Amino acid sequence: MTHSASRSKGFKTINPNTTPRALVSQSSELSTAWKAAVISLFPEAFPGLLDLSLSGRARNDGLWQLKVHNLRNYGLGKHRKVDDTPAGGGAGMIIRPDVMGHAIEAVIAETSHQWSRIYLSPRGHPINQPFIEELARADGVILICGRYEGLDERTITHYGLEERSLGDFVLSGGELAAQALIDATVRLLPGVIGNYESTKNESFSNDLLEHPHYTRPTEWKGYRIPPILTSGNHQEVTKWRIKKSKIITRARRPDLWTKYVKSRR
């Protein structure tokens, strides 16, 4: 991945191209904005939730940019066919390598050969916080949303696609996973969250799950805020939070707890 020194709003540049126009796109490119290029059979799914709250405001402010490319535009024949039956038989359909290859090459031509190419797939490595932090330091990412039974393996091999998954379950397609990945990345970009320091103490930032949170009123339905949190002793508050994070992580995520313990040896 390539890193850019700044993620603030930049000067606008216009790049001519002859490929089909993306469904979601700003009229010009913001040269220093973080960018996400998405290939999908359902481009109308975007921007979706990405147009709300922090990510939506950040996009309006030019901190990041979204372009969605309709895979159907690269389909074959009168009906823009994108899939075919699996070699060797079996259920479902497979996205053709020539169709997806055409789409990927068109996107690469207007982005960068150095951007990561992520294929959202249930067999991929789990998306985790260190991976998201790496993406946030890059200039942009190409996201391929699978459908049906997935992509022809030759597409994955030829274009060096990195398979990534939300977890051990199967979605109907990669669109929801792509939106989750973009949202997680955008919130780490400088200027998106007012108090950037708060992102450093979230779950997974140090191999521990986050500690419990409380706010006013002091007492609610018989439950009181732990006295230590209102003591004014910030050192003791920090110790309490770390202790609670350890307890929660050990109970809920033994895999993370093992990683945490090993990293402290």
What attributes characterize this protein structure?
single chain, 265 residues, Alpha/beta knot, Trp Operon Repressor, Chain A, 2 domains, 5-stranded parallel β-sheet, two-stranded antiparallel ribbon, 11 strands, elongated
SSE inventory with pairings:
Elements: E1 12-13, E2 29-30, E3 34-40, H1 53-60, E4 64-70, E5 83-84, E6 94-95, H2 97-109, E7 116-126, H3 129-137, E8 140-145, H4 153-158, E9 162-165, H5 175-186, E10 219-220, E11 223-224, H6 234-252, H7 254-263
Parallel strand pairs: 3-4, 3-8, 7-8, 7-9
Antiparallel strand pairs: 1-2, 5-6, 10-11
What can you see in these coordinates?
The structure is a single chain. By secondary structure, the protein is an alpha/beta fold. The protein folds into 2 domains: 12-186, Alpha/beta knot; 203-263, Trp Operon Repressor, Chain A. The chain contains 7 helices and 11 strands. It has helices at residues 53-60, 97-109, 129-137, 153-158, 175-186, 234-252, 254-263; strands spanning 12-13, 29-30, 34-40, 64-70, 83-84, 94-95, 116-126, 140-145, 162-165, 219-220, 223-224. Strands 4-3-8-7-9 form a 5-stranded parallel beta sheet, sandwiched between helices. It has a two-stranded antiparallel ribbon with strand order 1-2. Helix 1 (53-60) links the parallel strand 3 (34-40) and strand 4 (64-70). Helix 3 (129-137) crosses helix 5 (175-186) and helix 6 (234-252) packs across helix 7 (254-263). The radius of gyration is 22 Å and the shape is elongated.
